[in-house]
Fold this sequence. Notes:
By secondary structure, the chain is mainly α. The protein folds into 2 domains: about 10-90, Orthogonal Bundle (434 Repressor (Amino-terminal Domain)); about 90-144, no CATH class. About 70% of the residues lie in helices and about 0% in strands. It contains 8 helices and no strands. α2 packs across α4 (about 65-75) and α4 (about 65-75) packs across α5 (about 80-85). The N and C termini lie far apart (about 85 Å).
Amino acid sequence: MADKEQVPDGTGPIDKVADLGRDIGEYIRQQRSNAKISLRQLSKLAGVSNPYLSQIERGMRKPSAEILQQIAKGLRISAEALYVQAGILDLPTGGPVPDAIRADADLTERQKQVLLDIYESFRRENQAGGRPEQQHEAAAETKE
C-alpha cells in the first residue's frame, strides 16, 4: 500500500502561524475594546493604516515587532505584552499568582505589570533572606 497522503488537520507549521496571527489580532481587539478606543482612533494613535490594523485584528496579517510596538504605544500597554502574545517573546515564568494577574481582564496591562513587579520583588526578597514566617520566628527566638 502506498504512503497515505497527509490530510491537513490544522496542526501544521503554517496553521500554527495563522493561529498566532488570529491570537494577536484577537488580543489587540480585546485591548482596544477595554480601552474604549475605535479602530480608527487606534490607527491614528499607532500610526498604522486603518485597513492594515483591521486585517491584523481579523488574523489576516501578522504584524512585525515594529508595528506591534506602535500598536502597544497607541493602546498604552507594554510592547512586551504584545510580543508574548504574538509569540516573539516567551511567556515569563509564572505560577498561579502571576497567571491569575495576567488573566484578569479588569486590569490594564500597566496595572498587571506593576503587580507582577511587586510580586516578584517580594519573592526575591524572601528567597534572599528566608520566608517572612521564618524571619519572624528567628527574631522572636533572639528576644527570649
